[in-house]
């Protein structure tokens, strides 16, 4: 039996990791969670996956042009992505947790969250990973489908703007990290 979107939204919002999400953006944020879930499972339609299925001519990452675009590369190991992570994590004094070129998203995330001080900040860090991953995925899609390439500064601005929207919509665990970044 297939579930409709509302049923999926009710199921997801009943889970502990989604309890701090309220307001009009709930459905959009749940879609963001589902995107990250697909990424963690290696099921995003990256260039490498599309190439493997004969849907495009190459598997190159459009963010860096140096490696095949896999989920792990796109969201953790890509040089463009690591530059974004460095800027974001530096603002909250976590620059020592920036992913390395050989990290998988899951391994990096689990290791980095161990270095985040305090329980509330850990949930905020998880939200930050979701936010940055979502914005990187959208940048990848803009480059893939619209032929538009943003600079790191533009992507960082989008992350900041989207993060402020998430906080305004009730994504409360992200707020302490944004407060540190603004100080």
UniProtKB/TrEMBL annotation:
Q: What is this protein called?
A: Reverse transcriptase zinc-binding domain-containing protein
Q: Where is the Reverse transcriptase zinc-binding domain?
A: 35-85
Q: Which organism is it from?
A: Sorghum bicolor
Under the heading InterPro entries, the entry gives: RVT-Znf
Q: Which residues form a coiled coil?
A: none
Q: What superkingdom heads the lineage?
A: Eukaryota
């Amino acid at each position: 039996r297939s579930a409709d979107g509302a049923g999926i939204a009710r199921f997801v919002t009943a889970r502990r990791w989604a309890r701090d999400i309220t307001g009009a953006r709930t459905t959009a944020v749940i879609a963001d969670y589902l995107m990250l879930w697909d990424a963690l499972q290696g099921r995003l339609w990256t260039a490498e996956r599309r190439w493997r299925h004969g849907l495009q001519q190459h598997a190159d990452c459009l963010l860096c042009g140096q490696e095949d675009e896999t989920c792990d590369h796109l969201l953790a190991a890509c040089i463009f992505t690591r530059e974004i992570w460095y800027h974001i994590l530096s603002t909250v004094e976590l620059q020592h947790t920036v992913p390395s070129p050989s990290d998988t998203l899951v391994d990096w995330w689990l290791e980095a969250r161990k270095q985040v001080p305090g329980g509330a900040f850990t949930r905020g860090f998880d939200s930050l990973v979701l936010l940055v991953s979502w914005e990187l995925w959208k940048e990848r899609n803009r480059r893939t489908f619209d032929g538009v390439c943003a600079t790191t500064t533009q992507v960082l601005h989008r992350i900041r703007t989207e993060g402020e929207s998430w906080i305004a919509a009730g994504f409360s665990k992200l707020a302490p990290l944004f407060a540190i970044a603004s100080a």
